[in-house]
Design a protein that fits this description.
mainly alpha, 5 helices
Length: 98
């Protein structure tokens, strides 16, 4: 399953998920599936993050952020995309969607 900017926005605001966890989720190539079925990934997602995903709160937040950005003519980009800032990628904890 392809990682969408909406998936990356959702990931970027999950509480309790550190840099190592975010990198593991992004590298696994199954981010959308993980976000859709958080309880199947207890080893990667802390309970507070799984709760936000189960309730839909995390996705609603990401959708609202995307809507606000688009209304202002802002194009969101994610880590690994060609337009992602080159200087930001190699930092210790680059945001999945700056």
């Amino acid at each position: 399953m392809e990682q969408t900017i909406l998936d990356r926005l959702t990931l970027s605001q999950l509480p309790g998920l550190g840099p190592r966890g975010r990198r593991a989720l992004l590298a696994g190539g199954r981010l959308g599936e993980t976000l859709a079925h958080p309880d199947a990934h207890k080893g990667l997602l802390p309970e507070v993050a799984r709760a936000r995903l189960r309730s839909g709160e995390a996705r609603r937040f990401a959708e609202a952020e995307q809507t606000r950005a688009e209304a202002r003519g802002i194009r969101l980009i994610g880590l690994g995309e060609p337009d992602y800032p080159a200087w930001l990628g190699p930092t210790f904890d680059p945001p999945p969607a700056p």
